[in-house]
Design a protein that fits this description.
The complex is a heterodimer of chains A (670) and B (489).
Chain A (H helix, E strand, L loop, with lengths): L1 H4 L4 H15 L4 H26 L10 E10 L2 E8 L2 H24 L6 H20 L3 H19 L6 H32 L7 E3 L2 E3 L13 E3 L5 E3 H16 L8 H4 L5 H10 L4 H8 L1 H4 L5 H23 L4 H21 L3 H28 L12 H4 L1 H15 L5 H15 L3 H26 L6 H4 L6 H16 L17 H10 L8 H27 L16 H4 L1 H7 L4 H24 L3 H12 L13 H23 L9
Chain B lengths: L10 H22 L7 H17 L3 H4 L4 E3 L4 E3 L1 H21 L2 H5 L4 H19 L3 H19 L6 H32 L4 H9 L7 H18 L8 H8 L2 H26 L4 H24 L4 H22 L2 H28 L15 H4 L1 H15 L5 H15 L3 H27 L12 H19 L2 H13 L3
Antiparallel strand pairs in B: 1-2
Helix pairs in contact in B: 1-2, 1-6, 2-4, 2-6, 4-6, 4-12, 4-15, 6-7, 6-12, 7-8, 7-12, 8-10, 8-11, 9-12, 10-12, 11-12, 11-14, 12-14, 12-15, 13-14, 13-19, 14-15, 14-18, 14-19, 15-17, 15-18, 15-20, 15-21, 17-19, 17-20, 18-19, 18-20
The chains are: A mainly alpha (670), B mainly alpha (489).
Chain lengths: 670, 489
Amino acid sequence: MATFLELIWLLPLLPLVGFALNLFLVRSERVAGWLASALVGAAFVLTVAFSSQLVGWPEGQPYPDVVLFTWMQLGSLSIPFGLLFDPLTAVMCLLITGIGTLIHIYSIGYMHGDARATRYFAYLNLFVVMMLMLVMADNYALMFLGWEGVGLCSYLLIGYWFERKEASNASVKAFVVNRIGDACLLLALFAIFATFGTLNYYTQASGGELVAGVLDRADEIVGRTVEAGFFGPLLLATAIGLLMLAAVAGKSAQLPLFVWLPDAMAGPTPVSALIHAATMVTAGVYLLVRSHELIGPLQSPAVANLTVYVGALTALIGALAATTQWDIKRVLAYSTVSQLGFMVAAAGAGVYVAAMFHLLTHGIFKALLFLGAGSVIHGTHDTQDMRRMGGLRQKMPTTYWTYLVGALALAGIIPLAGFWSKDEILNAVVQRNYFPALIILFLTSLLTAFYMGRQIALVFFGKPRSEAAQKAHESGPVMRVPLIVLAVGAILGGIINLPSFAPDLPGTHLLGDWLKPTLEEEALPFGAAQIVLALVTTLASAATGYAGYRFYLGNSARIKPGERNVRDPLYPVTGDLWELSSEALGFNGLARYVRQGYTWLGARLASFDARGLDGLVDAVGYGLRGLGNNLRGAQTGYVRNYALLFLLGVVVIVGYFLLAGTPGLTLGAR
Amino acid sequence: MSLIPAPEITWAIAAPLIITFVWGVALLLVDLFVPDGRKSVVGYLAIAGLLAAGLSAAPLWNALDTPQSTFNAMITLDRPTLIVSWLLLAVGVVSVLISIDYLPRQGIERGEYYVLLMFSTGGMLLLAQGSNLIIQFLGLELLSISLYILVGFAYPRITSGEAAMKYLLLGAFAAGFLIYGIALIFGATGTVDLNEIGALLQAGAVTSDLPLFYIGLGLVLVGLGFKVSMVPFHMWTPDVYEGSPTPVTAFMSVGTKAAAFAAMLRVLITGALPLQEAWGPILAVFAASTMIIGNIGALGQRNVKRMLAYSSIGHAGYILLGVIAGNQLGIEGFLYYLVAYGLTNLGAFAVLIALEQRGEANWDLGMFAGLWSRRPGLALAMTVFMLSLAGVPPTAGFFGKLYVFTAAYEAGLWWLVLIGVLTSAIAAFFYLRIIAQMFMREPAIDTIAPLDRRLAFGIGLSVVGVIVFGLLPSLIVDVVQAGVLLAAR
């Protein structure tokens, strides 16, 4: 059935058709919504069909890699426009199209009545196209196309409600921060190309001969160094790894670049669910997993250690910040930062199955939580402040129950999906001897349970604390059905990768087996120690989660809406630490400085320009005035200033060439 | 006294040049008989002339597997130069196309406009094809003098006159350095023929006079650097680009740059390649400051025309990378970048022209607000151009950058690549700002100026080019590679 798999290019094509139709032809909101959903849904069905073809794929046979055409040919660099469908790509595609379909359907209800809804669906379709390109690309250059593309869509969708000032600010922030990561990724690609002479992942037929890909030849990188100036010689794998890690930090919201993600919540909630929780932000994790042969712990221990601790610390800071937010979506956003930290830590430790497992389960339950939050916001007429909620349990039963499932899954309560995947990550860091990381991640798990307990209590229990909460209503079926489907997924998701006590127990570590051809990773051992760790974690999480719930339920009377700066009931205990963590330990301030710097520079340059570089020229002018030559003569305009700078350039160039040309002072000439 | 022997002339090689100039002169006379109000006829005739010049060069491609000279080696054609020549003629055609509707709209329609444009294009051809410093100077002056007038062509607007004045003053200033540099080079080597200079340097025949040669080379680079707006000789660019009639800005930003870069390539690669270790570092520093100043300067601009002016400075920096790399890949990348940048920039200015109302001359970012709901086609086209200028795949601009960066990387200039990547990361900010305006704002003005067919055609052509060359860059890359492979050196 290899011929059937040659149709994988249909996957990105379907949503692309949706994008084009919605952009150009469709004018009705209803049609746009259903068309967009149907096409992504069709892509999901196809993905399932394609994936089923991979079951029982003969070992050693190359996976389908469809080269549509040669994208470019520069000197020795040949880049195909090729799509790959291996087990790793397959699971990513399932996640993207599966959750994508549900979120498209949900959006039909959520965006109802929005003036520009057709454009919204067009953007959403384009995002799916780009995300599929990112994961299906068979080389780094095409992957970069998707990487930039999802960034562009994210930028457009965060700023979708541009009338709100925070939305356009947030989109700029997301953009600026992401560009830092993107630039690093591009540099990493240059380094890879310079080393290997190709950017293809795997061996590919080209012009009648097989050309080995980067990841097949990754061993060549071992022991090679580059001169990094001041820092002395650096392992090449470390250099590439550091650049990639910076790219991951940008896209997957890790230290110190995570600050854009909470602000990105200014976009519509389904967008937060799809792009800023389930898919785009996991692109960084995907990059780490895909490139593991190149920058794994064997190739560069330094990058591996750094990645583990970047991930672990991000997890902790994200959880601290999530605990101290009032905005229902910002809690979830920081929680996403925190959970991405778990995945990055696992990938850094070299346990890629655990990272992918958590990526998938998290995609399900975090999408569920965001959609639940969207339902709450929708039902309370755009209330996002949890101080103005409360008591929604009876008014929105479906939302409540599904949200509860999502919260328990996130908190890692047995036997929900999050328990299994988070436990696997804790096990992974133990196996790789990262004990400090284990402690950090363990504490983070407890905090996670705590803030979800807090949120459940504040949103769904107690008495309604505002008129909007009083009059809240349940959302329509088009929004409820996706919630229920995702809730089922959040309950059962753990099945895909259960640990096994004995070797080869049937039905266990399915995901690990599935990904084995790509990741070549044995399942982690699971014995008495692991069971104890798992039980301790889940029990402690349950306890702290319950504590959070009780505490905020008991103190809900003290939270009065309408007053500005209502302090959290925990504030008297923590004092200023509360404020510190609500600002993500000052990283938000850091980002502010960066942005201010950007604006400052822009404004400075605008005035600089308006005054015709007078500032700079003045400085030079003072020096020349000493010659008694008043440069500010009768002439109008600024031509004299331009000429002065011009002259300086001439002096530099002639001076340089004089030095270069004078015998005895040669600068390497001849 | 013997007569000066007439040099042997291969007319085929000089054909594009001769057709352009002769047609231009003839057009000046034809213009006399074209009544006012129907001057577009002159425009169409100019297009025909430029196309004829382009076609006349078509048979040369195969013949040029070795460079060929004529007029006593005054002009030399090789394949890279031929590609640049075609680009220049195409730029001329598009510039006329986007002017035909613009001029009457601004009330400045005159037949001489098209003639001057043709002369200027001819000057550019001469500059690009000249293999003799004097000829290059002649070409430079020809194109400049025509441009001084064209810049001031929107005379009802005072800024246009101001721009022409500034350009003239600084242009004269720069030309002084250029001619002085040529004199010094002649003093050092006894020739102004670039091929001979190259041979002399290769043989190590210039020794005691080498300092003189170096200074001369430096001054020549100053003169050409002025034309390509290399920092610190770039200061005129924003003012002149803003003041000029927009089609002239488009023409200048692509044509002048391409021609002057081709001349720079000739001087450095044909002439001074043996001294690459000397000119490489200083040009690298200038390229770095050009990329930085150009892109950062654009950051604070709300005036789109000025923004594009700064952006064109930044792009000059990227093109310089290809020249400095000086290797096979570098020259290929240089040519590809010129084509990609030319297409994109012409398109972007054409959109600006489409939006420009008579007398309205602030070119504020706000004029793009809500363009998507007013004119979706224009908005999409502008999006493509902005993405290409920003270097986002899969547009032609992305490959241009990739190409020159790869070349510079292979030449060991990784720090320049670093600056290039970082500045293009910054640059994306102001390009995407325009996209954000178009898609995410409500329109500030409701009026929709009707879109002229010729303008729409020009824009459409550019969009198709940018996307096709982005998706299938091999279309140009193959041509460029074939060109450069055979023209080693």
